Amino acid sequence: MKVAVMGKNNDAIGKSSLIVMLSSLFARTQRRDAAIFSTSSLESLMQMVDVDTRAAETKTVGVYKALLEAATIRNREILDYGMKVGSEYVYLFNLFSAAMSEKDSEELFIKTINKIKVDLVLVEVTGDINSDFNHAVLKECDAILCMFEQSRQSMNFVKEYRENYDKYVVARTGYICSKYQPDAISGKRLLNFAGIHERETIFIPYTPYVIKHSLEGDLNNIAKLICNCEPEVLPLRAKLLETMQYLFDTPSYKYIKDYTTWFK
After folding, report:
1. Rounded to the nearest 10 degrees, what angle do helices 208-216 and 15-30 cross at?
2. Cα(18)–Cα(5) distance, rounded to whole angstroms?
3. Amino acid 1: pLDDT
C-alpha cells in the first residue's frame, strides 16, 4: 500500500508527525514493515525520531542507485539501504542527494516506491502539488491523505483541490483534520466549510505531547505509549487506528488487527 500525505504548500499541519506516528504504530501493532519517503529532503523529519544513521556512509544514494540499475539488488534488499527508526520495522529513505541531478533523483524515487516490498509506504509530498513530479507521485500512490487544519486558508485549499485537481487522484483521497480542537468549531461546521463528507474525514486531536516528543527526537516512541494506553497520548489511539482501518480495511475484509492483539 503506497500512501501519499499532502496538504497546503508550506503549512505546518503536521504531515511529518502523522507519518512517523502512523508508520510506527502500524509496524508495532500489525507486525509489518513500513517505509517513509519524501518528495524532498527528509532531514527535518529525521530530527524528530530516533534513527540509526551509523551505516549511512556505506548506504549512500549513489551506491544504491548503481546497484538498482545493475539489477543486483532484490526487492527485500532495498531495506538494507534505508535507515531504521527506533525498535520498530520502519525504514527511512532520503533519496534526494546533492551528488545527483534532480531528474535522476526523481526517477530513482518513482522506481524505488514501486519496487520496495513492504506493507505500508508513506510518502510526504512537499512543495506545490501541481508540480510535474508531485503530480506523478500522487498518481503512483494507492491512496492519498489530504491534511488540513481549522483555518479558512486550509479549508479553502481542500475545496480548491476537490474541485480542480486531477479527478483520478481526488477519487482516492481521504481527509485528515490535524490538531483538531472541537471547542473552536464543531466537526459538522468544519466539514461544511471544507466541502467534504464525514465518512471520508478523520479528526486527529491536538495533543501537546506530539510537540514534546518531536522536539526531544523520539516521536516514534509514541507508538509504544499508545499501545500501553498512556493517558498523555490516549486521544490519539482511536484516531490512528481509524486511519489504518480507512487505508486497509474493506466491508468484506478486515486487514487491521484491533486493540486486543496489539503488541505492548
Report:
1. 90
2. 9
3. 95
d(CA 215, CA 39): 23
209 phi, psi to nearest 5 deg: -70, -20
CA atoms 140, 194, 20, 27: torsion sign: negative
Q: In what order do the strands lie in the sheet with 143-148?
A: 83-85, 90-92, 34-38, 120-124, 2-7, 143-148, 173-180, 201-205
Residue 176, classed as helix, strand or coil, is strand
pLDDT at 57: 59
139 touches 168 (CB < 8 A): yes
Please give the model's pTM, rounded to 2 decimal places: 0.94
Instruction: State the residue for C-alpha cell 545527483.
Output: 100
**What is the rounded distance in angstroms from the CA atom of residue 210 to the CA atom of residue 19?**
12
Give the mean pLDDT per block of 10 residues along the chain (264 residues).
90 90 95 95 91 68 79 78 89 82 90 93 95 97 95 89 95 94 79 84 92 94 92 92 95 89 74
Instruction: Please give the pLDDT value at position 58.
Output: 60
Helical packing angle, 132-140 and 102-115, nearest 10°: 10
CA dihedral (95, 145, 115, 35) positive or negative: positive
CA-to-CA distance for 70 and 65, rounded, in angstroms? 9
